[in-house]
Recover the amino acids of this structure.
């Protein structure tokens, strides 16, 4: 039986279902026990040892523990190991990441790429584009493992964090109460908690960060939508002065390198708010444990070194767990483990393109559409544009429709007050008989809620209603607003922007997952 994990990639925590994450933790636990008891026979069962599998460490940002734990995990498996030297590569001749990976994919039958970059969403893009490229060449699709992409996610850190929390909980998944402390705005390991904590059935999260470092609202909303009980505090002092302090604390360092000048000026005060002090010790609940993805700052650590030898030190064991979890992740994606997986697999969401719906054309009624002062006798009339919005917004939508569809022809348009008293926009196109499917979808994406009417002999003969599309892609002029996103035009990677609907009027960039209001896409 083949493994359901073979050839897959891990860009975000959700790329493994909760059951699949539980499988990862269960296998890691067995491996750790085997290694600690030096049980050679059991250890050997985890080792891949296959000639055709090659691993590439591709780190465009600095790293110690992620890179070295993956390096040692690859060696554990006896695989071919490549360490890509970004500083001496053709990046310095302005080569794109996409072209670089097209080159690297051909060196092994099955390549596993471990990628750290500040370009958010890079692994999602590489998984798709290099996967398709490899198939065209008759090669196996490679696996990509996100080893941290900008402020976005760090899924393999999350897996080792959750494994460590489960160890602390004695493998009881019924509940967790955790405090997230530090730079929750920039800290990708904190962002990955939104999905990673779902391994527990009941989740209580206390967010301890001053306003400037607070967790972005869309992550907080996502936690609340999952049913987590979320509380907020400005500082450790405020948190400890209250009641019901969590036994599990997860610190993240202040990401000075990602802060703008405004925050840099305030860095010392912000750090103070989330730095643990000796006099706080007595307020901790019994058995409290601290965790930290590390590294910590050698001059101003938020977990000061006087705590290193106290029982609260959970971060040392946590960091060692990175080696064990990464051995198992590699074994799963290489197809060596997983044939015995039972449970709910990851569901890849489907985004149907059926948001253009034909509705009844009330052909008995004469429409009052006009081209200038003349009634429309035949052609296309786009109605209900921006219905219910403000006139300025509706004019913007009309401009957008004209620009995207290239409507430089005989026509008229305007903003009107409808019978119900709402404003709406109308565009009349007397020389256009029909729009292509692609143009209809473009129209739906640019002006959801509008209707398209085909008029013949002064009557509406076909009528279509455009709904909010489940995904928006392949349209001119759309772009992700996140300058760190792999799809941002400033990076000159050949990525077509794509947005996936996530709420009434909200879309997430497919790559970096930055939320956008519908109107921000153009
Ligand atoms: N936790 C973590 O990602 O550490 P490194 O930056 O040292 O890899």
């Amino acid at each position: 039986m083949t493994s359901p994990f073979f050839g897959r990639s891990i860009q975000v925590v959700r790329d493994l279902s909760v059951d699949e994450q539980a499988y990862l933790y269960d296998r890691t636990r067995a491996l750790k026990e085997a290694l600690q008891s030096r049980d050679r026979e059991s250890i050997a069962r985890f080792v891949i040892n296959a000639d055709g599998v090659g691993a590439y460490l591709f780190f465009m940002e600095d790293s110690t523990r992620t890179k070295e734990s993956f390096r040692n995990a690859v060696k554990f498996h006896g695989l071919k190991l490549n360490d890509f030297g970004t500083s001496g590569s053709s990046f310095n001749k302005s080569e794109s990441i996409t072209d670089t990976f097209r080159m690297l994919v051909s060196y092994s039958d099955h390549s596993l790429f471990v990628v750290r970059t500040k370009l958010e969403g890079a692994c999602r893009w590489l998984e798709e584009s290099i996967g398709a490229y490899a198939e065209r060449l008759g090669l196996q699709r490679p696996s990509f493992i996100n080893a941290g992409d900008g402020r976005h996610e760090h899924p393999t850190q999350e897996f080792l964090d959750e494994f460590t929390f489960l160890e602390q909980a004695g493998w009881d998944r019924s509940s967790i109460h955790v405090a997230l402390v530090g730079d929750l705005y920039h800290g990708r390991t904190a962002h990955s908690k939104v999905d990673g904590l779902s391994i527990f059935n009941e989740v209580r999260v206390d967010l301890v960060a001053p306003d400037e470092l607070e967790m972005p609202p869309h992550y907080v909303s996502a936690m609340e939508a999952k049913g987590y009980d979320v509380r907020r505090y400005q500082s450790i002092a405020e948190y400890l002065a209250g009641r019901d302090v969590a036994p599990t604390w997860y610190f993240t360092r202040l990401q000075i390198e990602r802060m703008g000048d405004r925050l840099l000026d305030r860095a010392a005060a912000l750090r103070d708010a989330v730095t643990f002090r000796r006099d706080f010790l007595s307020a901790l609940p019994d058995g409290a444990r601290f965790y930290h993805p590390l590294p910590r700052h050698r001059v101003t650590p938020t977990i000061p070194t006087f705590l290193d030898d106290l029982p609260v030190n959970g971060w040392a064991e946590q960091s060692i767990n990175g080696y064990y979890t990464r051995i198992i992740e590699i074994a799963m994606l290489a197809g060596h483990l997983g044939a015995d997986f039972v449970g709910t697999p990851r569901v890849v969401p489907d985004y149907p393109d059926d948001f253009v719906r034909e509705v009844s054309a009330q052909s008995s009624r004469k429409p009052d559409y006009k081209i200038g002062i003349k009634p429309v006798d035949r052609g296309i009339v786009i109605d209900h544009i921006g219905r219910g919005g403000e006139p300025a917004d509706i004019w913007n939508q009309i401009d957008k429709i004209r620009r995207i569809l290239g409507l430089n022809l005989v026509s008229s348009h305007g903003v009107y007050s409808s019978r119900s008293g709402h404003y709406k926009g109308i565009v009349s196109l007397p020389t256009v008989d029909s729009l292509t499917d692609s143009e209809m979808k473009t129209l739906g994406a640019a002006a959801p809620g509008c209707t398209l009417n085909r008029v013949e002999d002064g009557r509406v003969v076909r009528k279509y209603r455009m709904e909010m599309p489940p995904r928006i892609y392949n349209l001119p002029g759309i772009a992700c607003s996140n300058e760190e996103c792999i799809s941002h035009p400033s990076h000159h990677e050949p990525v077509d922007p794509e947005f996936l609907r996530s709420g009434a009027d909200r879309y997430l960039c497919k790559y970096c997952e930055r939320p956008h209001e519908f109107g921000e896409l153009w």
